[in-house]
Design brief:
The protein is α+β, with helices and mostly antiparallel strands. Helices cover about 35% and strands about 30% of the residues. The protein has five helices and twelve strands. The strands form three sheets. A four-stranded antiparallel sheet has the order 1-8-3-6. Strands 2-7-4-5 form a four-stranded antiparallel sheet. It has a four-stranded antiparallel sheet with strand order 9-10-12-11. Strand 9 and strand 10 form a beta hairpin. Helix 4 packs across helix 5. The longest helix is centred in the middle third of the chain and has 27 residues. The protein starts with 18 loop residues before the first helix and ends with a strand.
């Protein structure tokens, strides 16, 4: 079972939460580029907007996944949530979440989100430990293309909506190494440029 880092399970039915449930959350608005850190674990639902969740170690960043409306995430002292657009969130400290377990549909949404995160983390570890950087780049581009559902002449078309630096942070690799292999894929014809930021996967 493969899970994309761009396609998280969403919890959109906020009407299932009673007024008492909603009162447990802090509702906060953030502008683009603002950050959320946490000394203790925070449980966050993105009500609107887009963000990225990253693991931070010193000056190094590893992007765990991109999230959108309805995504459920946990933020702790080793991670940071960066908003990519104006966003609204519902925030709850983990110690207070037990009061929501009586809401069956909400509880299942949370459990499913944690299961998906566990599977995704296992995939990331397997890629980093067992895959060469070139195979990881190719696999990542295939997964992104599958998410985007675009084809040209019966071949996958992938649009890369971020820089090589961001791609490096997604792959846990040095920017220069990713750039070198990316250019190699173009030179060998495995990637064919198709517009400003799109490529045909050959």
């Amino acid at each position: 079972m493969n899970i994309s880092r761009f396609d998280q399970d969403n919890y959109a039915d906020f009407e299932l939460l009673s007024s008492e449930d909603l009162a447990l959350f802090r509702q906060i608005k953030y502008n683009k580029s603002e950050l959320v850190y946490a000394q203790n674990i925070k449980f966050i639902i993105l009500k609107s907007g887009h963000a990225k969740l990253s693991y931070i170690s010193g000056i190094n960043e590893f992007i765990i996944n991109f999230i959108s409306k309805g995504s459920i995430v946990l933020v702790d002292k080793d991670s940071v949530l960066e908003f990519l657009s104006y966003s609204e969130i519902m925030e709850l400290n983990l110690c207070d979440i037990k009061e929501l377990f009586e809401n069956e549909k909400f509880s299942m949404a949370m459990v499913n989100s944690l299961i998906r995160t566990t599977i995704m983390t296992r995939q990331i570890v397997a890629d980093i430990v067992f895959g060469s950087l070139e195979s990881r780049i190719v696999s990542f581009l295939h997964n992104l293309a599958d998410e985007q559902h675009m084809m040209v002449r019966d071949k996958k078309l992938v649009e890369i909506p971020f820089s090589i630096a961001t791609l490096s942070n997604l792959l846990g690799a040095q920017r220069q190494s990713v750039s070198t292999i990316f250019n190699k894929l173009i030179k060998t014809g495995k990637l064919i440029k198709y517009g400003k930021s799109s490529y045909i996967i050959s």
